[in-house]
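hiii, so i know i said id send this last week but things got crazy w the move. better late than never?? heres the sequnce for the chain we talked about at the cafe, plus the structure i predicted for it. fair warning i was half asleep when i ran it
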Amino acid sequence: MITRPNLQIVVTSEGLKIVSSPSPRHPRRRAAALGAVGLVTATVLAGCSAEQVGRGWMPTVPGMTEHTDDIVALWTGSWIAALAVGVLVWALIIWCVIVYRKRKDDNKLPVQLRYHLPLELLYTFVPIVMVGVLFYYTATLQEEITDTSTEADVHIEVYGRQWSWDFNYQDADVWDSGEPAAQDLSDMAVTEDLPTLYLPVDQTVEFTIRSRDVAHSFWVPAFLYKIDMLPGEVNTFQVTPGVEGDWLGKCAELCGQYHGYMLFNVSVVSQEEFDAHMADLEEAGQTGQLGPEYDRQNAVTQSGTGEGADD
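okay and structure toks below
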């Protein structure tokens, strides 16, 4: 065998063959790349608290609603199961690569076709069982989340419109409304200039969701739930907030030019503060309900017939 830089000329029974020789720099490059990946991973994990990791980096807090803890458990459990499967598969791949690698001076072609019925049944039925278990827990939790058979303590009607919100507090017969946000979209924190939806803590709230114009989506990330708002359709859901505080809500459906500014606050307060806010709205003259007469289609119809014209 005659060796040249990065090339090897191998003398075989079939004649001369030129093959590439691995560069001594390649192991160093791989080691540097692995070191960089490890450093980035360690840096990212160092910036994460145990609480963040425990809830799977979901944007909520423990006990936020009656369903959020179950959603987080399903989310993190699914990732743990997926990680376990991934580690097992990679371990088997690496084991096969090492154990069944080509040996020196071994030029025999291994058997190309073999059957192992128990093993084939195993890797066929185990994934089916895993998907079935995941589907069962997902469907069960979804059924609990969308159930509205419980008698609610508070009823709120929410209208989405380009590009803000109308809130009707039906029990108190008062309303509140907002304008599109005027804030830097890079800062998604709660701000005073946003319309605010008030909810009493530990009280079951039933939302009636409607749209005045185009498709929107009502989303409070801390609740880990969102629901579509479609023109001409009425959707409902119930939630029982369990933690007082201020949270951000937003539209999660691209609805036009200023979709990114369609934000609102959610203030979960005590029953006393909630009642006081209802009294403030009544004192401000915001009584009654902002109904479907303000929908775009109805407003256009009224304008065309002159019903909406000033005297």
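btw The first helix runs from residue 25 to 46. thought thatd interest u
miss u guys!!
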